[in-house]
Amino acid sequence: MPRDNKTPLIQKIAKQAYITYKGLKSSANVADAQSELISLVTAVRAADLKIAPRKSKPSSGAAELQGPPVTYMHICETEVFSMGVFLLRSGASIPLHDHPDMNGMLKVLYGKVSVRCFDKLEDNLTVNSVPPHFDPPLAPLQTASLWRSILRSVAEYSENSGPCFLTPLRDNLHQIDAVEGPAAFLDILAPPYNPDDGRDCHYFKILQTVADREADGKSNEEQQGEEKEKEEETWLLEVPQPEDFWCGGEPYPGPAVSI
After folding, report:
1. What does the alpha-carbon distance between residue 10 and residue 27 come to, in Å, rounded to a whole number?
2. How far is the C-alpha of 175 from the C-alpha of 117, rounded, in Å?
3. Which end of the chain has fewer CB atoms within 10 angstroms, the N or the C?
4. DSSP symbols for 182-235
5. With contact defined as beta carbons under 8 Å apart, do 184 and 88 qualify?
6. Cα 58 from Cα 80, distance rounded (Å)
7. Over the stretch 2-15, which tens digit does the pLDDT of each residue have?
8. CA-wise closest residue to 188 among 259, 250, 93, 241
9. pTM of the predicted protein model
10. What is the pLDDT of residue 228?
11. Between β-strands 183-190 and 103-110, what pairing exists: parallel, antiparallel or unpaired?
12. What are the two backbone dihedrals, phi and then psi, of residue 236, each rounded to the nearest 5 degrees?
């Protein structure tokens, strides 16, 4: 069968994303369903979307601060999935946030990003449970916004890396930081964010406990032994969108996509 070289790669990705995620109800069979999509996404580069890598610019004071740290190029959205490109300025960060009941895929187009992935633990605070002492202390009302979690991974991705994944239960919370200059990545979410269906974005802050603070004074060997036992357990506090983060929009210059 002859290869289809006329259809833009991003159109093939969109079509395969729709096929992959349409009717997908369980995260158990995501890996098998995603194999063809992964192959296509792994191959995509900035040039396929007519996006030119941006260079670091020297800070220009107030003018630099007025621009958004992150911008988004919308490519397409259906009831099944959304797809677009996030562009991060040098030193920019997308704060720790979640993707309720969603699958996702991130593929770096240029630059390098560091991704920290967390899982919420199901056995969260109950009426009878007592949270640890935090440093600094929390107000009583804030305990309702506490989540126990596990830090699953910290990894760096470049344009030569494969995609980074999330599912409703695995690596669902993540923070994305630009490393060593500007960066951009293709972002696929299935289904899209939709507050009316309970899929709104929430932001989180990593808390330090008094025990964590005391551990700073221990030897490295003592800390390593305790970390293995705790399996990187972390407490998160749900917070409003950070004031120093906002996302602007800019036109998508690549091939048109239709579903």
Report:
1. 24
2. 7
3. N
4. -EEEEEEEESPPBGGGTB---EEEE--BHHHHHHTTS-HHHHHHHHHHHTTEEE
5. yes
6. 41
7. 456 799 999 999 99
8. 259
9. 0.85
10. 43
11. antiparallel
12. -120, 145
